[in-house]
Amino acid sequence: MKNLIVLSIISILCTSCPGINFPDDDYEFEYETIVTEEAVNLDGINSTYDDYNSSLPYSGLSHRFYYSCNRHSRGEHFDIVFENVSITYHDRDDVLNVGYGTSEVSKFNQKLLPTINSEYDELGPLYYFGPDQSSYFLYANNENGDYDIKAVMWNKSSFGGYQATEEISEPYFLRKINSNADDLYPTFTVDDSEMYFCSNRDGENFNIYKLNISEDMIQADSSGDNGQVKAEIVQELSSAGNDKCPSIYKDIMIFASDRAGGYGGFDLYFSEYLNGNWSEPVNMGEKVNSEFDEYRPIIIQSYQFKGRMIIFSSNRPSGKGGFDLYAARNYDLPEEAYPN
Questions:
Q1: How many domains is the chain partitioned into structurally?
Q2: pLDDT tens digit string along 252-274?
Q3: pLDDT band for position 337 (cuts 50, 70, 90)
Q4: CA dihedral 282, 286, 291, 295 (to 10 degrees)
Q5: What residue numbers bound the domain in which 199 lies?
């Protein structure tokens, strides 16, 4: 089984305020990474080590890019790291640009990163802005010999406000959700009613699972033994291969699979939620996929530019080494109404 090279969390921008639009004026701007329909390397972030999959957290942390990397341990284990980035659209040149900033450590990161990182692998993070008063940072950890979903939580007013406590809980396992196999890559539907994740709990291969979710299931006191919540395989997304790394944006799921018919290794696929079911998965094509492995795509959408932007990781040889993070503008995904 290949290393479950995951994830990361990206705090780049938000879906409601996803970038800065530069109108058709006489301005000077030095582009750094121009995102095109052909996947481009985010070389201002990547290293000669493995830089893995990302996901978008709540917009309050916009412009901090979280992901998993083994550079700090020189290839020994994965930590969650971050960089500051900016995404801007330039109407005059129809250019979508990714810029890179300094690695200034915020008070939040001064608390978060030492709390979650350990001598084990930390993979597949997800920032979850809970419906009540708490926020959560979810990720997977293999300290028990397999990957389990863990979390830390904090009050939404704990950082950035007057008399902020700047407190984050100790990491805890989501015992109602985890199994004795590998469980990782949590993602939530837009109405927070369901959690999706991948697991090999029913055999050697990975499948995508779903379960009905409530906030008490991911709170720190969920460690109490109140019975495991039953998760079911999403049959519409299943194959004879491995189906991993689900990520949901509105009514679209994107994921990685090594099912038959791809370009080689793991490819990226998408599916729409239509009339209560997921549609047959569609390969995202050769502008994104390669004969190598592509993992954990995420979608960024803006009313400011046509189509959508995706970010994913790949071990194709055009990178800096190992797995790198890539971005592409994708016009082929289903077009929903753009956010207001």
A1: 1
A2: 999 999 999 999 999 999 999 99
A3: very low
A4: -60
A5: 10-330
